[in-house]
Design a protein that fits this description.
The chain has 192 residues and is of the alpha/beta class. It has 7 helices and 8 strands, in the order E-H-E-H-E-H-E-H-E-E-H-E-H-E-H. The strands form 2 sheets. A 6-stranded parallel sheet has the order 2-1-3-4-7-8, sandwiched between helices. This is Esterase yqiA.
Length: 192
């Protein structure tokens, strides 16, 4: 059976982000026949889920694999729990509905230039996507750096403690030197 890898970027990010482009370049160089999707996620949670589900629908019958960064890690977890599959999560947001309450108001995505308004209803949408308990049959590998300036890495360390977790001292929210993990990430994702 074939695989599809779906890379999910974080809040105020895009498929043009450094990790997304590094991932795409790695796949093109090493797995040229692998289906990979890096969708531009909508700025609102329920619309972002629809973006992801359109990617899933295009690859019906393929095994689902996700790479999710920050808010994309939160959404990847939701997708794995809903559809099954595997995910590599990079400094994932665990409770973004708590964090993004401080970001209500107008924003402009720095990659797309698209303005949007983050409201309480969107925070509630995130709360509805929460996965407080994880299926023991799910498979995650979580990459964390302790000096993440946006998220407390210990939240992810606790949530995913029953899965593979790699914690590096230092770093930042972008996960410094992410590309060095790409060979191992794809070995993990492309095995059953």
């Amino acid at each position: 059976m074939q695989y599809v890898v779906i890379y999910l970027h974080g809040f105020l990010s895009s498929p043009q982000s450094q990790k997304a482009t590094q991932t795409l370049e790695f796949v093109r160089a090493n797995y040229p026949n692998l289906a990979i999707e890096i969708p531009q996620l909508a700025n609102y949670p329920h619309e972002a889920v629809k973006n992801i589900e359109l990617c899933i629908a295009k690859h019906k019958g393929k095994k689902l694999r996700f790479i999710g960064s920050s808010l994309g890690g939160f959404l990847s977890t939701y997708m794995v729990e809903k559809y099954s599959g595997k995910a590599v999560l990079i400094n994932p947001a665990v409770r973004p509905f708590e964090l993004l309450g401080d970001f209500l108001g107008e924003h402009i995505n720095p990659y797309t230039g698209q303005p949007f308004l983050l409201e309480n209803s969107h925070i509630e949408e995130l709360r509805q996507l929460d996965t407080p308990t994880l299926d023991p049959k799910s498979d995650y590998w979580v990459l964390l750096q302790t000096a993440d300036e946006t998220l407390d890495y210990r939240q992810a360390e606790t949530k995913y403690q029953d899965y593979k977790v790699t914690i590096e001292q230092g770093g930042d929210h972008s996960f410094q030197d992410f590309q060095r993990f790409l060979p191992d990430i794809f070995r993990f994702l492309l095995q059953d």
